[in-house]
Specification:
Elements lengths: L1 E7 L6 H15 L1 E7 L2 H7 L11 H17 L15 H14 L2 H15 L6 H11 L3 H8 L2 H17 L6 E4 L2 E4 L4 H6 L1
Parallel strand pairs: 1-2
Antiparallel strand pairs: 1-3, 3-4
Helix pairs in contact: 4-5, 4-7, 4-8, 5-6
């Protein structure tokens, strides 16, 4: 069975499409995904690339939301556009994903987080979103937040980001198959075929 590395940052808008599609793609293509959370925001800032669309880029922002909406229609997804953006608690949302990697619930956490963020309008990383996702997964939200803010998890998150940089990753979502990088949800099928 083919395994593809799925590098993502909760906070990336286009990652919504991939996260919500991966379970079906995994089933239909006999492929597994190795989920790899990292800080795309940190890498983008290092490249002097504003990691979200400021007011002076309204045309780009409007296009992004329309494009996501169009693509979501193709996948029978129902996002509420625009979703709250950019995230205030970007790092915490991703540190929880790292904790989930260690404990075996990352995929469910990320899927539920994007569901609430894009389909219910509840900002990822917010107390409300963490509470709802934790309730769905039968986790204690205060315990999850405390452990996600531990030095061990923060160090692991930073290490993941360093590894992403070393691999040449610059955006989310990114898929790596046989050392070949495919950036963007629209490159997912190309990654599978490679």
């Amino acid at each position: 069975m083919k395994t593809i590395d799925f590098w993502f940052s909760i906070g990336s808008t286009y990652t919504y499409l991939s996260v919500r599609r991966l379970p079906l793609i995994k089933k239909d293509n006999i492929v597994t995904f190795n989920w790899c959370p990292f800080s795309v925001r940190k890498l983008m800032m290092e490249m002097n690339n504003v990691p979200f669309t400021p007011p002076e880029k309204k045309v780009k922002s409007d296009y992004m939301w329309r494009d996501i909406s169009r693509r979501a229609d193709n996948y029978n997804l129902s996002p509420i556009i625009p979703a709250p953006y950019p995230l205030k608690n970007f790092d915490l949302a991703n540190q929880i994903a790292v904790l989930g990697i260690n404990e075996g619930w990352c995929e469910e956490y990320v899927d539920r987080t994007y569901f609430y963020w894009f389909e219910k309008g509840i900002e990822a990383g917010s107390d409300e979103c963490i509470d709802k996702v934790s309730a769905d997964m039968k986790l204690n939200p205060n315990d999850v937040i405390t452990r996600a803010n531990s030095k061990e998890i923060i160090d692991q998150y930073n290490s993941q980001t360093d590894k992403a940089r070393e691999l040449g990753i610059f955006g989310s979502p990114t898929f790596i198959n046989n050392n070949e990088i495919f950036w963007g949800d629209d490159r997912l099928e190309d990654a599978i075929k490679w």
